[in-house]
Amino acid sequence: MGPIFILQELRMKNFRKYYDLFLQYLMFIMMIALAAVVVLGVIYRWSGNALIWYDEVASVQLAWLTYYGSAYAALNGAHIGVPSILKSFPLGIRKGLFVLSKVVVYGFFALLTFYGIIVMKLIYGETMTTIEWVSQSFVQSVIPVGSLLFIVSETLRLKEDYADIMKEKQL
After folding, report:
1. In whole angstroms, how far apart are CA 122 and each of 1, 46, 59, 113?
2. Is the separation of the CB atoms in 75 and 157 below 8 Å?
3. DSSP run (H or E) holding 19
4. Whole-prediction pTM value?
5. Strand partners, 127
6. CA end-to-end span of the chain, whole Å?
7. Tens digits of residue pLDDT in 136-152
8. Cβ contacts of residue 113 below 8 Å, gap of 6+?
9. Residue 171 domain-assigned (yes or no)
């Protein structure tokens, strides 16, 4: 290992650390905002003055939290997976299945990004029902952005996932 490789490895670890922090702070802010909107909606509804926008905004916030949370889960290897099935195969087949699984994941999120952008273009000019100054393109931007973040997360875990899959079976 030369000094350039070590420097690149340090940069990648640093990027991953700050990317992880970015996702954590983003989700923290989004959870606080969601809780505030829900509590505010409950208080207003209880007082007999229900907010017309609260249901729509809370559902959008929950969708955004889900997309960005999935990128964070992918970064930390907490998304749904069954590595024990892959580990039950011989090493050669395991490598092929690992590559196939990553191609499927990357392909799915690349398609989601592509079609998310198309959806944003198709609904350009439309607004939320209750808050007309908020564009539907902005609301739906979570699809391509969240998908790209998921791809970044998967890429940052690639080496770690490969090493884990290539470990010998645990009996």
Report:
1. 50, 38, 21, 14
2. yes
3. helix 3-46
4. 0.88
5. 135
6. 34
7. 999 999 999 999 999 99
8. 143, 144, 147, 148, 151
9. no
Question: Residue 87 to residues 30, 98, 100: CA-CA distances in angstroms?
Answer: 37, 10, 14
pLDDT of residue 5: 62
pLDDT tens string 8-24: 777 888 899 999 999 99
Question: Pick from 63, 61, 12: which is nearest to 39 by CA?
Answer: 61
Quote the domain boundaries for residue 140: 3-166
Which amino acid would we find at residue 33?
Answer: A
Number of domains in the chain: 1
Residue 108 in domain: yes
Helix-then-strand count for the chain, H and E:
6, 0
3-state helix, strand, coil in the chain (%, to 5): 80, 0, 20
Chain centroid to CA 167:
27
Three-state DSSP at 134 gives coil
